[in-house]
Amino acid sequence: EVQLVESGGGLVLPGGSLRLSCAASGFTTAIGWFRQAPGKEREGVSCIRRDYGNTYYTDSVKGRFTISTDNAKNTVYLQMDSLKPEDTAVYYCAAGDFCHLGFAAGMDYWGKGTLVTVSS
Q1: Is the model's pLDDT at 1 over the cut of 80?
Q2: Nearest alpha carbon to residue 105 among 41, 17, 48, 29
Protein backbone atom coordinates (compact mmCIF):
# COMPACT_ATOMS: atom_id res chain seq x y z
CA GLU A 1 0.00 0.00 0.00
CA VAL A 2 1.17 3.51 -0.84
CA GLN A 3 -0.59 6.35 0.91
CA LEU A 4 0.26 10.03 0.58
CA VAL A 5 -0.83 12.75 2.99
CA GLU A 6 -0.09 16.40 2.25
CA SER A 7 0.15 19.23 4.74
CA GLY A 8 1.42 22.79 4.92
CA GLY A 9 -0.98 24.66 2.70
CA GLY A 10 -2.56 27.92 3.69
CA LEU A 11 -2.93 31.59 2.90
CA VAL A 12 0.21 33.55 2.16
CA LEU A 13 0.98 37.02 0.85
CA PRO A 14 2.53 37.47 -2.58
CA GLY A 15 6.28 37.15 -2.22
CA GLY A 16 5.91 34.93 0.81
CA SER A 17 6.91 31.34 1.41
CA LEU A 18 5.35 28.03 2.35
CA ARG A 19 6.71 24.55 2.79
CA LEU A 20 4.50 21.66 1.81
CA SER A 21 5.06 18.20 3.22
CA CYS A 22 3.98 14.83 1.91
CA ALA A 23 4.15 11.94 4.32
CA ALA A 24 4.29 8.67 2.42
CA SER A 25 3.75 5.07 3.27
CA GLY A 26 5.42 2.49 1.10
CA PHE A 27 7.92 3.51 -1.55
CA THR A 28 7.99 4.50 -5.19
CA THR A 29 10.87 5.52 -7.41
CA ALA A 30 9.37 8.89 -8.29
CA ILE A 31 7.47 11.30 -6.09
CA GLY A 32 6.46 14.88 -6.62
CA TRP A 33 3.86 17.57 -6.75
CA PHE A 34 1.07 18.52 -9.12
CA ARG A 35 -1.32 21.40 -8.74
CA GLN A 36 -4.73 22.33 -10.04
CA ALA A 37 -6.63 25.58 -9.93
CA PRO A 38 -10.36 25.83 -10.68
CA GLY A 39 -10.96 25.87 -14.41
CA LYS A 40 -7.40 24.83 -15.21
CA GLU A 41 -5.76 21.56 -16.07
CA ARG A 42 -3.72 19.73 -13.50
CA GLU A 43 -0.09 20.56 -14.06
CA GLY A 44 3.11 19.02 -12.87
CA VAL A 45 5.12 21.25 -10.55
CA SER A 46 8.10 19.24 -9.42
CA CYS A 47 9.29 15.67 -9.13
CA ILE A 48 12.26 13.84 -7.68
CA ARG A 49 13.77 10.48 -8.46
CA ARG A 50 14.36 8.95 -5.06
CA ASP A 51 16.92 6.47 -6.37
CA TYR A 52 19.39 9.00 -7.80
CA GLY A 53 18.01 12.29 -6.56
CA ASN A 54 17.33 13.84 -9.96
CA THR A 55 14.93 16.74 -9.68
CA TYR A 56 12.57 18.27 -12.21
CA TYR A 57 10.60 21.50 -12.21
CA THR A 58 8.10 23.13 -14.47
CA ASP A 59 9.49 26.34 -15.94
CA SER A 60 7.15 28.63 -14.06
CA VAL A 61 8.55 27.61 -10.65
CA LYS A 62 12.24 27.19 -11.44
CA GLY A 63 14.34 29.25 -9.09
CA ARG A 64 11.46 29.66 -6.65
CA PHE A 65 10.49 26.12 -5.60
CA THR A 66 12.74 23.39 -4.25
CA ILE A 67 11.82 19.75 -3.86
CA SER A 68 13.61 17.53 -1.37
CA THR A 69 13.15 14.25 0.45
CA ASP A 70 13.93 12.84 3.82
CA ASN A 71 14.05 9.16 3.08
CA ALA A 72 14.43 8.22 6.73
CA LYS A 73 11.07 9.85 7.38
CA ASN A 74 9.67 8.82 3.99
CA THR A 75 8.62 12.41 3.45
CA VAL A 76 8.93 14.75 0.50
CA TYR A 77 8.90 18.53 0.79
CA LEU A 78 8.21 21.39 -1.54
CA GLN A 79 9.74 24.65 -0.39
CA MET A 80 7.92 27.46 -2.16
CA ASP A 81 9.48 30.92 -2.13
CA SER A 82 8.56 34.17 -3.87
CA LEU A 83 5.00 32.98 -4.23
CA LYS A 84 2.77 34.58 -6.82
CA PRO A 85 -1.02 34.74 -7.05
CA GLU A 86 -0.85 32.40 -10.03
CA ASP A 87 0.59 29.75 -7.72
CA THR A 88 -2.80 29.52 -6.04
CA ALA A 89 -4.05 25.97 -6.42
CA VAL A 90 -4.68 22.70 -4.69
CA TYR A 91 -1.33 20.98 -4.49
CA TYR A 92 -1.29 17.21 -4.72
CA CYS A 93 1.48 14.86 -3.79
CA ALA A 94 1.82 12.10 -6.38
CA ALA A 95 4.01 9.03 -6.70
CA GLY A 96 4.83 6.43 -9.29
CA ASP A 97 7.60 4.83 -11.27
CA PHE A 98 8.72 7.83 -13.32
CA CYS A 99 8.85 11.61 -13.21
CA HIS A 100 6.69 12.97 -16.01
CA LEU A 101 5.40 16.42 -15.16
CA GLY A 102 3.44 16.64 -18.38
CA PHE A 103 1.41 13.49 -17.75
CA ALA A 104 -0.46 13.45 -14.47
CA ALA A 105 -2.23 10.24 -15.41
CA GLY A 106 1.12 8.49 -15.34
CA MET A 107 1.32 8.77 -11.58
CA ASP A 108 -0.04 5.80 -9.67
CA TYR A 109 -0.79 7.23 -6.24
CA TRP A 110 -2.24 10.54 -5.14
CA GLY A 111 -2.82 12.43 -1.96
CA LYS A 112 -6.00 14.34 -1.33
CA GLY A 113 -4.37 17.72 -1.75
CA THR A 114 -3.63 20.82 0.28
CA LEU A 115 -4.85 24.27 -0.70
CA VAL A 116 -2.34 27.06 -1.27
CA THR A 117 -3.78 30.55 -1.64
CA VAL A 118 -1.50 33.44 -2.53
CA SER A 119 -3.37 36.68 -2.10
CA SER A 120 -3.10 40.10 -0.55
Answers
A1: no
A2: 41
Which 8-state DSSP code applies to residue 17? -
Question: Cα–Cα distance between 84 and 74 in angstroms, integer?
Answer: 29
3-state secondary structure of 25: coil
Contact yes or no for 44/61 (Cβ under 8 A) = no
Would you report the helix, strand and coil content of the chain in percent, each value rounded to 5? Answer: 10, 50, 45
| Helix, coil or strand: residue 21 | strand
Do the beta carbons of residue 85 and residue 118 sit within 8 Å?
yes
Judge whether 113 and 6 are in contact, CB under 8 Å: yes
Instruction: Determine the Cα angle at 87 with ends 47 and 69, to 5°.
Output: 30
Q: Cα(87)–Cα(17) distance, rounded to whole angstroms?
A: 11
Percent of the chain surpassing pLDDT 90: 97
Tens of pLDDT, residues 43-70: 999 999 998 899 999 999 999 999 999 9
pLDDT tens readout for residues 63-117? 999 999 998 999 999 999 999 999 999 999 999 999 999 999 999 999 999 999 9
